[in-house]
Design a protein that fits this description.
The complex is a heterodimer of chains A (about 325) and B (about 550).
Chain A (H helix, E strand, L loop, with lengths): L1 H20 L13 E5 L10 H16 L2 E5 L1 H4 L2 H10 L4 E5 L4 H10 L4 E5 L8 E6 L1 H15 L4 E6 L4 H17 L4 E6 L6 H13 L4 E5 L1 H13 L3 E6 L10 E7 L1 H15 L5 E5 L6 E3 L9 H16 L4
Parallel strand pairs in A: 1-2, 1-3, 3-4, 4-5, 5-11, 6-7, 6-8, 8-9, 9-10
Antiparallel strand pairs in A: 10-12
Chain B lengths: L2 H63 L3 H22 L5 H27 L2 H85 L14 H169 L5 H149 L4
Helix pairs in contact in B: 1-2, 1-4, 2-3, 3-4, 4-5, 5-6
The chains are: A alpha/beta (about 325), B mainly alpha (about 550).
Chain lengths: ~325, ~550
């Protein structure tokens, strides 16, 4: 009997041993990655401008630097604040606000999440955990002014601003300097529309300017500016786009565009974060030198050798920061 | 527990362990396979969806640059395909890490689908371009999904590898434990079986050597070995007893063999005497047989003479039979003649009658002729009267006189004819009387003939009776001869059978004599066998001496 029970005990132990070994596991946890969240500006993705540009920059960072990103749009979140809070709560390492109109909401959220890093594009914040990125629009606008000065035949060019604010003033001053640098005799007509999203208003302003003999129009006025470009095309005049390459808005009129390379800006700063684990505090200014602003390729007309040379010379000077 | 059960249990336990190890491996392998099965297609679909959506985005963009119907259809198709893939993937996205971005992407896509369609239908290029870019948002979500899916797949692969490794380790350990346990129990079991077996084998060897005084083995187990041991002990005891009884028996056999030898010699003597008597008997029988043979020959000769007599008598009988036959034939001929005569008489009687009738007719004719004659004479008279009357009438009766003359002539001629008939009838009557006379004479002759024939017939009958009597006598003589011949043959047969019996008995005594000789030889051989038997018992005794019994 003793032997029998011993044998049974052994067999039960063996079976228990076998079945016991089969259950063992740790739950799945994905790799730790740098996460970036962006609050897109008003129209959101597909605006062919700021938002798209920023998105492209993030895509490049995602594909090349191995980060992941998420985004919010105003049409979904109703307010910038809500979108930014969602991004902060989702634990994004960097939370980006796009455009100066985001500033107020971004600062609110940044105060609530002081340990997270925020990036504000196109405006300047004093908060400790907010890094501001601004562009030297005057540098870009200066080049746009050179082009305008080179191609005007009536020696009358026009500038349409979205609002009379310091940022748009920067555009205006740069543009005027550029035009005058080519020919001080050229007159620059300036109008501030007071609205960034009324293309009809833009068109009517443009119409008036063209009636006044203006044959090159430069608009820094969002959708209102698009109205300007289309009106120029209708009247067989030239126009210069802003922020992104706006050629497709009026393919017979848009000679070039003053580019704000938001994509480059975002890619650069994310790269720095990936490499160093932190980004510079305070304000980062990006100009021609940093590839933060630029001119889109010249289309519609072609500059002659002389004109090309003039543009190159001024561009060189601007890069050196000595155009003023 | 019997050894059989022990062995069975031992192997059964090993088998159960092995089966459980195999089952464990199979179970784990199956779970590994099933976990992989579902996931890989999902992974591929995710990538496919990404590619499809990218293509959709590109075709929307293409439409924005070149708003042709072809590009529109292309964009719509791509969007439909993407939608299908979204639906297919919907169920597989269970892990929360990728379920969340997937849900987001899905929602965005349904919005995009609606808006892009509307834009395409409205030929709104700017909106199409916008939607093309908005697709990037979905693609970004899908990028995350894909990334997590891939990571999850890697994680699963790692888990599987670990699982496989652990399965292998566990299997090895289990097999090792199983081997150890199995060998331990097998050795134990073998030892419990072989130890008593070895002891029994040693005892068996001793017994084989002739030593039956072995010590019995003590085995407590109640199994086949216990049975074997018990049987072995019993066998040893039985052998002891057997050998003792063999010893006594062999001694008895020896004494018995001696007695048989003595009796055998006596029997041989008696047999010899019997043999000589039998030979004498045989010779006597032989002479009887010879004499019987000669008797048989004589009887045979007698029988042949007898046979000849019988043959002759038979011939005579045959002749008498033939005579009887001839007489019968004669009788028949006579009867036939008698018949003829009788018929003749009948015919004659008929003739007589016919003749008489004929005579009657002739008489009738005569009567008729007489009547005619009278008529003729009266006619003549009438004619005379007529002539007279005519003459009286003178001239007027002249013609009548002629007629009367003619009638008178006719009457004369009728009288003449009648006379001729009378003459004829008279002649016929005379002829008939002659016929009748001759017929009567014929009848008389026939009667006389008939009587003569009857006498002859009677004579024939007498002859027949006599001949029959002779024939009968001859027949009885023939049968008597046949009986005598049969009796003779029976005598002959009896004599022959006596002779055969005598010959057989002679042969039988010869056989007896021969058998006696054989018997004598057999007795001699038996004596030899008994001697051999004695030798064998002697040998058995010496053999028995080798065993050491209790």
């Amino acid at each position: 009997m003793k032997k029998k029970s011993f044998m049974w005990m052994m067999s039960i132990m063996l079976v228990l041993f076998i079945s016991g070994c089969s259950s063992s596991s740790a739950t799945f946890k994905p790799k730790d990655r740098i996460k970036v969240g962006i609050m897109l500006s008003d129209v959101g993705l597909g605006d062919q401008s700021f938002s798209d540009s920023a998105f492209k920059g993030l895509m490049k960072a995602r594909d090349e630097l191995g980060i992941i990103f998420d985004y919010r749009e105003l049409k979904d979140t109703k307010t910038y604040e809500q979108g930014l809070r969602e991004l902060a709560e989702a634990g994004n390492d960097l939370v980006i606000g796009l455009g100066f109109m985001v500033q107020e909401d971004l600062e609110k959220v940044a105060k609530q999440y002081p340990k997270q890093t925020f990036i504000l594009i196109d405006s300047v914040s004093d908060l400790e955990n907010v890094t501001s990125i601004t562009f030297k629009e005057d540098e870009g606008s200066f080049l746009a002014g050179i082009v305008a000065g080179l191609i005007t035949k009536t020696n009358k060019v026009g500038f349409i601003g979205g609002a009379d604010v310091p940022l748009i003033r920067k555009f205006e001053s740069g543009f005027v300097k550029g035009v005058k640098a080519v020919n001080p005799q050229i007159a620059v007509q300036e109008v501030y529309a007071g609205n960034f999203s009324d293309d009809k208003l833009g068109a009517s302003i443009a119409k008036k300017m063209i009636a006044n003999g203006v044959d090159v129009l430069y608009a820094a006025a969002g959708l209102t500016g698009v109205g300007v470009l289309r009106e120029a095309e209708l009247n067989g005049k030239y126009a210069i786009g802003v922020d992104s390459d706006q050629y497709f808005h009026a393919e017979k009129a848009v000679v070039t565009s003053m580019l704000k390379n938001v994509d480059v800006a975002l890619y650069t700063i994310i790269k720095e974060y990936v490499e160093k684990g932190s980004i510079p505090k305070g304000t980062v200014q990006l100009g021609l030198k940093e590839n933060g602003v630029d001119l889109a390729p010249i289309r519609v007309i072609s500059l002659n050798e002389q004109q090309q040379k003039t543009l190159e010379t001024w561009k060189q000077k601007a890069l050196e920061g000595t155009f003023e | 527990m019997t050894i059989k059960k022990k062995l069975l249990l031992n192997s059964l336990l090993s088998l159960i362990f092995s089966v459980s190890i195999i089952a464990f491996i199979i179970f784990n392998m199956l779970s590994i396979q099933s976990s992989n099965q579902d996931f890989v297609p999902m992974m591929m679909k995710t990538q496919q969806l990404q590619a499809e959506l990218k293509a959709a985005k590109q075709s929307l963009n293409n439409y924005a640059y070149s708003p042709t119907e072809g590009n529109k259809q292309e964009a719509l198709t791509r969007l439909m395909d993407s939608e299908k893939l979204f639906k297919q993937l919907d169920e597989g996205m269970k892990q929360p890490y990728f379920q969340q971005p997937f849900e987001k992407a899905k929602q965005k896509f349904s919005a995009l689908m609606k808006e892009a369609k509307a834009a395409l239908d409205a030929r709104d290029i700017a909106e199409t371009r916008r939607q093309s870019m908005r697709a990037e948002g979905i693609l970004n979500d899908l990028y995350v999904v894909n990334m997590y899916v891939n990571e999850y797949y890697d994680y699963m692969q790692k888990q599987l590898q670990e699982q496989i490794r652990s399965v292998i380790t566990i299997s090895f350990v289990s097999v090792g434990v199983l081997l150890l346990l199995a060998s331990f129990f097998s050795i134990r079991l073998t030892r419990t079986i072989t130890t008593p077996l070895r002891k029994i084998a040693a005892n068996a060897k001793e017994i084989a050597r002739g030593n039956l005084r072995v010590e019995p083995i003590v085995y407590k187990g109640n199994d086949e070995l216990g049975d074997l041991n018990h049987s072995f002990t019993t066998m040893t005891e039985q052998l002891n007893g057997l050998l003792h009884s063999v010893d006594t028996m062999s001694k008895q056999v020896e004494a018995f063999a001696k007695e048989i030898e003595q009796e055998n010699e006596m029997l041989t003597e008696i047999n010899n005497q019997v043999a000589s008597s039998t030979n004498e008997l045989s010779a006597g029988a032989q002479s009887i047989s010879e004499e019987l043979q000669s008797a048989v020959q004589l009887i045979e000769k007698m029988e042949s003479t007898f046979s000849e007599n019988v043959a002759r008598t038979e011939q005579t009988a045959k002749y008498s039979d033939e005579a009887v036959l001839a007489i019968v034939n004669g009788q028949q001929a006579l009867e036939e003649q008698l018949n003829f005569i009788r018929e003749n008489a009948k015919a004659t009687a008929l003739i007589e009658n016919a003749t008489k009738e004929f005579a009657d007719y002739a008489g009738k004719i005569e009567n008729m002729a007489k009547a005619v004659d009278e008529i003729a004479s009266q006619t003549n008279l009438l004619a005379l009267n007529a002539a007279i009357e005519a003459a009286r009438a003178g001239e007027a009766g002249k013609g009548f006189a002629v007629v009367a003359e003619e009638v008178r002539k006719l009457a004369e001629e009728s009288a003449k004819a009648t006379n001729q008939i009378f003459e004829m009838v008279r002649l016929i009557k005379r002829g008939l009387t002659n016929v009748l006379n001759s017929v009567r004479q014929g009848v008389e002759i026939a009667d006389a003939q008939s009587r003569a024939i009857e006498t002859t017939t009677n004579a024939f009958k007498e002859i027949e009776q006599k001949v029959n009597g002779i024939s009968h006598d001859i027949q009885s003589l023939v049968s008597g001869m046949a009986i005598s011949k049969q009796l003779g043959e029976q005598v002959l047969q009896n004599v022959e059978s006596i002779s055969a019996v005598v010959e057989q008995s002679a042969a039988g005594s010869e056989e007896i004599a021969a058998s006696m000789t054989e018997q004598l030889q057999a007795f001699k051989k038996m004596g030899e066998k008994v001697t051999t038997l004695r030798q064998l018992t002697d040998e058995l005794q010496t053999m028995m001496a080798k065993f050491e019994t209790k």
